[in-house]
Amino acid sequence: MNAIKVIKKQYAAFTLVEMLIVLFVISVLVLLFVPSLTNQRSRITESGNQAFIQVVQTQVELYQMNEDQPVTYSNLVANNYLSQEQADRAVELNLDLNDLP
Which ranges does the record mark as transmembrane (predicted)? Predict the structure, then answer.
């Protein structure tokens, strides 16, 4: 009976080689997937920025049709064409209201 307990204790844990193999496999998987996730995030950000530019462009066109004042971010916010958060984001993206397509 004692011999069985001794044998079980010898094989109860992973060996160092097995742990190194597992760490190696995990490292390879991380190296494969992290760049893909980073690229996906930048594509999503770019897509969101393009959609936002389209919204600002549409609101500027609507403002030009309905108002006689010059198009500025403060006028767009004051007349409820853009929210203050949208105007701030447009400034962060360096959108020039005169150069919108």
Answer: 12-34
For every residue of 15-63, DSSP letters joined together read -HHHHHHHHHHHHHHHHHHHHHHHHHHHHHHHHHHHHHHHHHHHHHHHH
Residue 101: predicted pLDDT: 62
Q: What six digits make up the tokens of 34?
A: 């992290």
Q: If 0-12 CB within 10 Å is exposed, 13-18 middle and 19+ buried, where does residue 89 land?
A: middle
Residue 71: burial class (beta carbons within 10 Å; 0-12, 13-18, 19+): middle
pTM: 0.64
- Give yes or no for a contact between 71 and 87, defined as CB atoms under 8 angstroms apart: no
